[in-house]
Design a protein that fits this description.
InterPro entries: Fatty_acid_synthase (IPR003965), HotDog_dom_sf (IPR029069), MaoC-like_dom (IPR002539), UPF0336/Enoyl-CoA_hydratase (IPR050965). Keywords: Lyase. This is Acyl dehydratase. With 151 residues, the chain is an alpha+beta fold. It has a domain at 9-24 and 59-141: Thiol Ester Dehydrase, Chain A (Roll), CATH 3.10.129. It has helices spanning 26-36, 41-44, 46-50, 61-74, and strands spanning 17-23, 82-86, 89-90, 99-110, 115-124, 127-137. β5 (115-124) and β6 (127-137) form a beta hairpin. 28% of the residues are buried. The model has no long low-confidence stretch (mean pLDDT 93).
């Protein structure tokens, strides 16, 4: 679990990054299906998945994308940031047992509106499984929530 860290716009710099590593468990996929309502058998049924090119159940693409949200909401920039948009390009499947390595990096700081454009990459081993960009509005230091390092 990521510890909370609230950063202000002034704290950010181009090239700053944060990462998260998560091993996908069957209960994660079942829980995501319950939460989202997406009960497509490609995610939940070994029998169904065996008849697809994937051969075994795969994680929901938005489950993988939600790990990007975890970084944005807790660490970079963290509490107080407002998620404005996200592009997602799904490149390869994620299976139960895979270790997903998520990296979010500040690509651009936009002074007007105090926004940050962030590149987002999820990999399993050497394979990029998801890539995209997020745009977030980041509070100025004077408006930022109390610093929450370590909570």
């Amino acid at each position: 679990m990521l510890h909370l860290r609230a950063l202000s716009y002034e704290d950010l710099y181009v090239g700053m990054s944060e990462e998260l590593v998560k091993t996908v468990k069957a209960q994660d996929i079942i829980g995501f299906a319950e939460l989202s309502g997406d009960r497509n058998p490609i995610h939940l049924s070994q029998h169904f998945a065996a008849k697809t090119p994937f051969k075994t159940p795969i994680a929901h693409g938005l489950y993988t994308a939600s790990l990007i949200s975890a970084i944005l909401g807790t660490r970079l920039p963290g509490p107080g940031a407002i998620y404005l948009s996200q592009t997602l390009n799904f490149k390869a499947p994620v299976h139960i047992g895979d270790e997903i390595h998520v990296v979010v990096t500040v690509a651009e700081l936009i002074e007007k509106g105090h926004r940050a454009r962030l590149t987002c990459t999820c990999t399993v081993g050497d394979t990029i499984v998801l890539e995209g960009e997020a745009l977030v509005k980041v509070p100025l230091a004077e408006d930022a929530p109390e610093k929450l390092e370590g909570h």
